[in-house]
């Protein structure tokens, strides 16, 4: 029965399906590479903008914050970028201004009241 026309058609369909799946996989890899390249380019632009508007000490302080609290550091970076793009930064942000900015953006600390009976 291995030489019947139905078996041949079935094998032909399997072969076509495999080719389609391989084509899709290759296309997905290209999309992934494009996304990664765009992401790297956006990161490079962000770093260039930060270098342009922050002094070395302010960048060091921001990097230290990012190492300890990554999400908060990202938030501060986004705020600095937004200020730079809107033209509200006059000159460069130095370490003292960075301290003030961090203080303003710092989330409120949660306080707990413990009552004893």
UniProtKB/TrEMBL annotation:
Show the Pfam families listed in the entry.
Answer: dsDNA_bind
Family, per the entry? Answer: Belongs to the PDCD5 family.
Q: Where is the composition biased (Low complexity)?
A: 35-47
**Basic and acidic residues biased stretches:** 11-27
Coiled-coil residue spans: none
Protein name per UniProt: DNA-binding protein C492_03581
Region entry Disordered: which residue ranges?
1-47
Q: Which InterPro entries match?
A: DNA_bind_arc, PDCD5-like, PDCD5-like_sf
Q: Which SUPFAM superfamilies match?
A: Double-stranded DNA-binding domain
Output the Gene Ontology cellular-component terms.
cytosol
Q: Which UniProt keywords apply?
A: DNA-binding
Question: Molecular function (GO) terms listed?
Answer: DNA binding
Indicate whether DNA-binding appears among the record's keywords. yes
């Amino acid at each position: 029965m291995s030489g019947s026309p139905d078996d041949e058609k079935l094998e032909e369909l399997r072969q076509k399906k495999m080719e389609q799946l391989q084509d899709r996989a290759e296309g997905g890899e290209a999309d992934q590479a494009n996304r990664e390249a765009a992401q790297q380019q956006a990161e490079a632009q962000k770093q260039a903008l930060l270098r342009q508007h922050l002094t070395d000490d302010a960048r060091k302080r921001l990097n230290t914050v990012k190492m300890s609290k990554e999400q908060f550091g990202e938030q501060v970076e986004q705020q600095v970028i937004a200020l730079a793009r809107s033209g509200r930064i006059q000159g460069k942000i130095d370490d003292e201004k960075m301290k003030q900015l961090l203080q303003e953006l710092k989330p409120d600390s949660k306080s707990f009241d413990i009552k004893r009976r």
